[in-house]
Amino acid sequence: MKRIVLIFLCTIGLSVNAQVKTLTLKEALTYALQNKAEAKKSKLQIENSEYQIQEIRSRALPQISANGNLTYNAILQTTVIDGAAFNAPGTTIQAAFGQKWMSTAGLSLTQAIFDQAVFTGLRAARSTREFYQINDQLTEEQVIERVANNYYTVYVQRDRLTLLDSTYANTTKVHNIVKGQFDNGLAKKIDLDRIVVKLSNIDTERQQVKNQVELQENALKFYMGMPIETQIEIPSEEFEATSAALTETPNAENRTEYLLLKKQEELLVYNKKAVEAGYYPTLSLTAGYNYIGQGPEMPWFKKPKDGVYWSDYSAIGLNLNIPIFTGFGTRAKVRQADVEIRTLQEDMKDTKLSLDLDYRNAMTQINNNLVTIENQKENMRLASEILSNTKNNYLQGLASLTDLLDAENANQEAQNNYSRAVLNYKIAEVSLIKSKGELKSLIK
């Protein structure tokens, strides 16, 4: 009985694991944005930026701390004083001041009144948040691009496998015809051997493509952040390859990559100002309140009758620090910060050129692939027609087996070329959408 239950439970587990998840491109992209590690980490960076901002703001708020100590003076320090103070002129007196035990407890407060570095940090706080928000957007676009390209590749690989299955089925029919002819003495053994070799080659290619499909699916699931063991199915609707609308070159300065560099430049400018704050004086307010107990015994919980006396004291002050000469250290730091800004500005120029190039190349690839698709579609139609006619001629004895096998090879090659052309088009289409800064339109 237990064995039957165990087998039943295992069967249920296998059936659950065998469930297939159907994924459209939009669903795949949405899943990736919710589950891929890079997307999650960029969201955490935004969250962390809020804590960084709070840290900067804390420097402008009062800093309050409590302190306390307990001291045992094993040997009191003596001080040599003139005896005249004690009506003993001409003598020297050694006197020990203080008590064996001393304990203090108190509160201290520090408030920055003027600190240029703090003020600059507060102004930079908003830019820090915006930097991470733009970085999150860029991360999402990168995830979308990788998943879309891999999604299309999986589709085409599966389409290729379907083609091979169809070719294998058709070749099997030819094999059966040739074998029947051979059995009746109407075909040569070499013809039968050739068709057997053809079937074996197709089957070998099928196994290789199956392996490629599995590897590509695993890569897609990895880029989506999906468990590798999940079974996925991609809808079989044909990808449309339509002519892309010719538009003016998009403004590269609106692209996320460029906006991120622009925001980084802004942060570097604030960093330079923070370094320049080293030239400015600082002014702060300090205040403290303390309670001290002294006596021959440990002061805690003791009173004057025990020889322990408690008293309080307090102080309030202003601290002014004016930098006069720092050995040109501040000047060197300012110049380093300026070099960082100018270096980034060169990167921005190069990035703008690169983004313009991406758009031009994507448009060229789109147009070239559209021409290739139309040509391959016509080739595929002709190859299919030739194969059909050759098969009829072969059955009527008007064509050789060589002609039939050549027609099958040409038909298979034409369909593979068409699939590759569609894949190249879809990848170029993703590049074009990216160059326009519209990758998120794929999930709408």
From TrEMBL:
Domain of life: Bacteria
Keyword Transcription regulation: no
PANTHER family noted in UniProt: OUTER MEMBRANE PROTEIN TOLC
GO cellular component: cell outer membrane; efflux pump complex
Signal peptide range in chain numbering: 1-18
Major localization listed first in the record, in broad terms: membrane
InterPro entries: OMP_efflux (IPR003423), TolC-like (IPR051906)
GO molecular function (one): porin activity
Coiled-coil segments: 363-424
Listed name of the protein: Transporter
Family classification: Belongs to the outer membrane factor (OMF) (TC 1.B.17) family.
Keywords: Cell outer membrane, Coiled coil, Membrane, Signal, Transmembrane, Transmembrane beta strand, Transport
Compartments in which it is found: Cell outer membrane
SUPFAM superfamilies for this protein: Outer membrane efflux proteins (OEP)
